[in-house]
Amino acid sequence: MDEEITIIDSNARNERIKNFFLDNKKKLILTASIILVIIIGYLSFEKSKERTKIKLANQYNLALIDANPENKQKTVDRMVNVIRSNDTTYSPLALYHLLDNNLLENNDEINILFNELIEKTNLEIEIKNLIIYKKALFNSDFVSENELLKILNPLVNSESIWKSHALYLLAEFFYSKDENQKAKEFFNQILVLPNANSTIKTESQKRLNRDLSE
Questions:
Q1: What is the pLDDT of residue 42?
Q2: Claim: this prediction has a pTM higher than 0.85
Q3: I want to staple 139 with a disulfide (CB 3.0 to 4.6 A). Which of 98, 117, 143, 198 is the partner?
Q4: Rounded mean pLDDT of 127-154?
Q5: How many CB atoms lie within 10 A of CB 55?
Q6: Taking Cα atoms as reference points, which of 142, 192, 195, 187 lies closest to residue 169?
Q7: What is the rounded CA–CA span in Å between residue 79 and residue 90?
Q8: What is the 3-state secondary structure (H, E, C) of the chain?
Q9: Are 80 and 46 in contact (CB under 8 A)?
Q10: What contacts 106, CB < 8 A, 6 or more positions away?
């Protein structure tokens, strides 16, 4: 008797499953189709990203190989195109190359390219912070106190690994202008910063002891 009941229950369960698939056939096919389209779309997107990356790598390397002191503008144009592609790897490298080799003379143009990376490129946070610091370092020789503070504000008000670098740049900026009290304030902030760069902390202490001890 128990065996017959088990068989009946099993048949009933199989029938319910069969009816479920029959009743929801269209929905199941639609769901499977959507999942398939998503998978294909994702794979196509990743393949497209890979092709774009390879293309940018080729553009960047070609600009390096073809670099000619007699035709700097050609290198500049190629590197600027790479920067404006907003690639997380090659865009920063392209800007560094332009700066390291003094290929750009217009400060406004350089700052526009810095902003292209900072504002439009999806960089890892500490890479972005490094570029903000490099922008401030570049501008520190010719901008006002307020402008430099504005550039460095995102680092000074963060826990970034580049915070001590930003504070040191500001301290040296004010020291160079004989604003010793402001310089001391920033040097002292470095000394109490938990994750301050050890070399920067040492140099800050030296500066305070040697030049700002009064």
A1: 45
A2: no
A3: 143
A4: 97
A5: 13
A6: 187
A7: 9
A8: CHHHHHHHHHHHHHHHHHHHHHHCHHHHHHHHHHHHHHHHHHHHHHHHHHHHHHHHHHHHHHHHHCCCHHHHHHHHHHHHHHHCCCCCCHHHHHHHHHHHCCCCCCHHHHHHHHHHHHHHCCCCHHHHHHHHHHHHHHHCCCCCHHHHHHHHHHHHCCCCCCHHHHHHHHHHHHHHCCCHHHHHHHHHHHHCCCCCCHHHHHHHHHHHHHHCCC
A9: no
A10: none
Structure tokens at 44: 């196509």
Tell me the residue type at 158. Answer: S
Give the residue carrying structure tokens 């580049």: 162
CB atoms within 10 A of CB 196: 20
Virtual torsion, Cα 53, 105, 153, 207, nearest 10 deg: 120
The two structure tokens encoding residue 36 = 């398939």
Quote the tokens at residue 19: 């009816």
